[in-house]
Write a structure and sequence with these properties.
alpha/beta; 42 helices; single chain; seven-stranded mixed β-sheet
Length: 945
């Protein structure tokens, strides 16, 4: 430097510049590099020095200048950048990209130079900038008044410069003709991460966090897979925030959702890492070289936006250096070597250990309190909270949206509205539209043009690009937008399968999906599973497939919009009918004893089919389905539900005028009558019994008429008209015998036997039941209930014959539990309690009474024919034991489930094996049917004995 140059003193603004990637540029241009370097020097010397700056050092591609005025320094940098940008360089790839840094501090020159830390601070600021960028310190920003015309300073926040302990607030010069979009400054921040700051608390997922963290520690690529809205991003960010200290070179978050061109995924990752393109070199090579020697975790979010390109970048990064680990979130896996796929489950909806609230309920409670100004739902709303999270399948986004609805709805109102999941959760929100078209490009094409331009620094993002960014963010504003994000990536076969699978209410097997479509669905189903739109759940018998309820609701909407709903749902109704028939047949196709357990897994599917039959399908098909659930509804304590479905189907018949054969109406009315009786609606029971008889007579089917007439005594019994009921039973039995349809009148036989038992005609009842045993055994729909053994057990109890009572009741209870007749099993448990009283096992009797009552209460069913009898026995037992002892044992029984209660009843010792049995008395040889002494006094033959 010439000693004649005047160096400013006092408040001096120092400027450093150099060419970004100069080494790479020199290698690429070869002999053409010196002219480019010389032209760069000429332009900067003319613009920088001409603005009053003192040139202290020019070395290679670098300049060091000092300015007495901060405004002049900024003006010089602005002029220099514009000159470089406007110059006609030999090739676009050979354009030098210059970074500039400014800092203002108090300095005095000595011996023609500045020995001040302010110089080093300015150099570090320049090193933090990117090619084409001008950065300055807060001190320069304060002293730069006025700024160059049309210019402003953009606050980039606090940054720690290399070699300095404090933090410096950096500003970027913004002006027409200058780039605006740059990666973050290349500074030595103390906390090396860019994880997004969350504005709401993270709730639950403790088990998942532990499991996922262990995977990240032992594998270099972990992909968190799940449907939209299941909380992949939130969990990944929460986890990454907890491992920042383990990665000295940082934890870096990259949102691939904003990148709509495959070629720009590497640019997106590089921008987060503070890298810029090098002339003539693929961005991915620059990225790999930078990461090779570093230990870092890269969190690639929403990779399903660009799965192939994301996979390629991940593969190159992992191959380039062992210090890089990748945590990816996506709706589909990459299929890369070494990839560990971890599927995020929905939030748990069942209470945790110790009765603590499930994660799903805890999230809803937290977000509801926020939505209501800090007021949490009260205790009365707890049951409805659980209904809501179950209906939403524990999907976090759906729960968040549901909490927002609780600003205007009670929890009960929200739960009642969730039949329309999307309509309720998305109310008042508009799903984002696709990015707008501009300059003849579609939204995605325009975005590619804009991002590519922005990546090489030729133009700022356009409105189209910003629209894509908004769309990527807004995809989580509504459930519909979230699912649409994935739906748009499906091919025709996969999208059709998704729509048609919306008809299923729960998990289904592959063969069921194939039955529905009439073709092999494996390829399309694999796509849906890979994209996390359908969950595959491995089981011992083979995988089952299901959709989360919000996705099912979306697919159902698409099904209707595609005009396919009628065909798909009618096909589902046909499958439901087929499944009902199959449940009654053995492997050889022959009828087997009906097990209601076979209907339990079908219940939700049958309800979905019934819903369609009652609203848009065939009411006749719905009546057939209802008939298949006849016993199941009553034995599960759901007689009221059965009645409501029948009423809806009657309404459908009235609405569409569908013709229903009289025989089928008679069967439906007869079933309705039985449901009404079980539900305590005795007038309705009699009314529908009469309708059934009229329709059966009109049909002219003798067997059907016998079955209907056999049930006519039931409403009379319920109404207390016992004599009339007995007369009807006898008439029906005699008439059925004459018509040779006596097996169809079996229900009348059972009703008559009960009436005989009630009035103490035990011998006649036993004889009647003995004749009915082979008829019951020959009927698959009847024999699992073992009504003959139950009634013979009651007759034996009335006679005081504990051996016969024990054996008959044990047979009846085993069969009823084995075949799922839970309502009738409660009666048998009560009967065994009476048998325990008779043998002196009073505490067991009280426990069994308590268990049977608790189960029946949980089923919300009426006590039935034997209700008064059980009550009388309990009153007498309480008198013997005393209130405290009886209540304690009764309460113990109330804690038992039905299976536990049945096990307790079946564990009661056979009377002949008890130590008090007369057969063990010295010299005694008692009859196996010798009545045992009754602890309550004389035997009780029946209520009217």
């Amino acid at each position: 430097m010439s000693p004649r140059i005047h160096l400013p003193t006092g408040w001096v603004t120092f400027v450093f510049t150099d060419i970004e990637g100069s080494t790479r540029l020199a290698q690429m241009l070869g002999v053409n590099y010196p002219p480019v370097l010389a032209e760069h020097r000429r332009l900067l010397r003319r613009t920088l020095a001409a603005t009053g700056g003192a040139e202290l050092l020019t070395e290679g591609d670098s300049f060091f200048l000092a300015f007495p005025d901060a405004s002049a320094a900024l003006t010089a940098c602005l002029t220099g950048q514009r000159a470089l940008a406007d110059h006609d360089w030999p090739t676009p790839e050979g354009t030098p990209r210059v970074r500039m840094g400014l800092h203002t501090g108090w300095a005095e020159p000595r011996d023609g130079e500045y020995a001040s830390p302010e110089v080093h601070r300015a150099a570090r600021i320049a090193a933090a900038a990117h090619g084409g960028q001008v950065l300055c310190s807060a001190a320069t920003a304060r002293h730069a008044d006025p700024l160059p015309a049309g210019a402003s300073l953009l606050d980039l926040g606090l940054h720690r410069l290399r070699g300095f302990d404090d933090r410096e607030r950096l500003f970027q010069l913004v002006a027409p003709g200058l780039e605006r979009q740059f990666p973050r400054p290349r500074t030595a921040d103390a906390v090396a991460h860019n994880l997004p700051t969350q504005v709401t608390s993270f709730v639950g997922r403790q088990t998942e966090r532990v499991e996922l963290r262990a995977l990240i520690e032992s594998h270099r690529l972990v992909t968190v897979l799940g449907a939209g809205g299941t909380g992949k991003t939130r969990l990944a960010v929460e986890l990454a925030g907890g491992v920042v200290e383990a990665y000295p070179d940082g934890v870096w978050f990259v949102d691939v959702a904003t990148v709509t061109d495959p070629g720009l995924v590497a640019f997106a990752v590089a921008a987060v890492l503070g890298l810029r393109p090098e002339p003539g070199r693929p961005m991915v090579d620059t990225l790999v070289e930078y990461a090779a020697a570093r230990r870092m975790l890269i969190l690639l979010d929403t990779c399903d936006a660009q799965p192939a390109a994301s996979g390629e970048v991940i593969s190159r990064l992992l191959a380039g250096g062992r210090g890089v680990r990748v945590l990816a979130t996506s709706r589909e896996s990459f299929g890369l070597p070494g990839e560990v796929v971890w599927r995020i489950p929905p939030l748990a909806v069942d209470p945790g250990p110790g009765g603590r609230e499930s994660d799903a309920v805890a999230l809803l409670l937290d977000r509801t309190a926020a939505a209501r100004g800090g007021r949490r739902p009260d205790q009365a709303e707890q049951a409805d909270l659980r209904r809501v999270v179950r209906r939403l399948d524990g999907v976090p986004l759906a729960i968040e949206l549901a909490a927002a609805r609780l600003r205007v709805l009670s929890v009960g109102q929200l739960a009642a509205r969730l039949d329309d999941v999307l309509g309720t959760l998305d109310a008042g929100r508009d799903a984002p539209e696709p990015p707008p078209a501009e300059n003849g490009y579609t939204g995605n094409q325009q975005d590619t043009v804009d991002l590519a331009a922005a990546a090489v620094g030729t133009t700022p993002p356009t409105p189209a690009h910003r629209a894509v960014q908004r769309s990527a963010t807004e995809r989580h504003l509504t459930m519909q937008a979230t699912v649409t994000w994935s739906y748009r990536t499906l091919g025709p076969r996969a999208s059709r399968l998704l729509r048609w699978m919306a008809v299923f209410a729960g998990p289904v097997e592959l063969s069921t999906v194939e039955w529905l479509l009439g073709e092999d669905p494996l390829d399309a189903l694999s796509v849906l599973v890979d994209k996390s739109m359908v969950l595959a759940e491995p089981r011992a018998s083979g995988s089952t497939y299901r959709m989360l309820d919000p996705i099912r609701a979306y697919a159902g909407r698409r099904l209707a919009e595609a005009g396919e709903e009628q065909a798909a749902r009618d096909r589902h109704v046909a499958w439901s009918s087929h499944a009902l028939e199959r449940a009654r047949l053995g492997p050889d196709g022959r009828p087997v004893t009906l097990s209601l357990y076979a209907l339990d897994p079908l219940a939700d599917e049958l309800r979905a089919a019934l819903r369609w039959c009652a609203t848009g399908g065939s009411a006749r098909a719905g009546l057939r389905l209802a008939g298949g659930l006849d016993h199941w509804w009553r034995e599960r304590g759901l007689a009221r539900e059965g009645r409501l479905w029948l009423f809806r189907l009657y309404g459908r018949i009235a609405e569409n005028g569908e013709s229903i054969p009289e025989a089928e109406l008679a069967a439906a009315y007869h079933m309705h009558s039985l449901h009404a009786g079980a539900d305590g609606e005795f007038a309705e029971e009699l009314r529908f019994s009469q309708r059934a008889e009229a329709a059966a007579r009109q049909a002219g089917d003798t067997g059907l008429l016998a079955r209907v007439l056999a049930g006519r005594a039931a409403p009379l019994i319920d109404l207390g008209q016992l004599d009339e009921a007995e007369r009807i039973c006898r008439e029906v039995i005699d008439w059925a015998a004459e018509q040779d349809v006596l097996p169809d009148a079996l229900f009348a036989v059972f009703n008559l036997a009960e009436l005989l038992w009630r009035r103490g005609a035990l011998d006649e009842a036993a004889e009647l039941l003995g004749a009915a045993r082979p008829v019951e055994a020959a009927r698959p729909l009847e024999r699992g209930r073992r009504s003959v053994d139950m009634l013979l057990g009651m007759v034996a109890l009335a006679r005081g014959d504990l051996v016969a009572a024990h054996e008959h009741l044990a047979v009846a209870l085993r069969s009823r539990m084995s075949h799922g007749y839970h309502g009738r099993a409660c009666d048998t448990v009560n009967a065994i309690a009476v048998r325990c009283v008779a043998s002196g096992d009073l505490l067991t009797a009280a426990r069994l009474f308590g268990a049977a009552q608790a189960v029946r209460a949980s089923m919300r069913s009426t006590p039935g024919l034997y209700g008064a009898y059980w009550s009388e026995r309990q009153v007498e037992l309480r008198r013997i034991l005393g209130d405290a002892t009886f209540d304690a044992a009764y309460a113990e029984g109330g804690e038992l489930g039905l299976e536990e209660a049945a096990a307790l009843a079946l564990a009661v010792e056979h009377p002949d094996l008890a130590v008090t049995s007369a057969r063990f008395a010295p010299g005694a040889t008692p009859s196996p049917r010798q009545p045992a002494p009754h602890p309550l006094g004389a035997p009780h033959p029946g209520l009217h004995g």
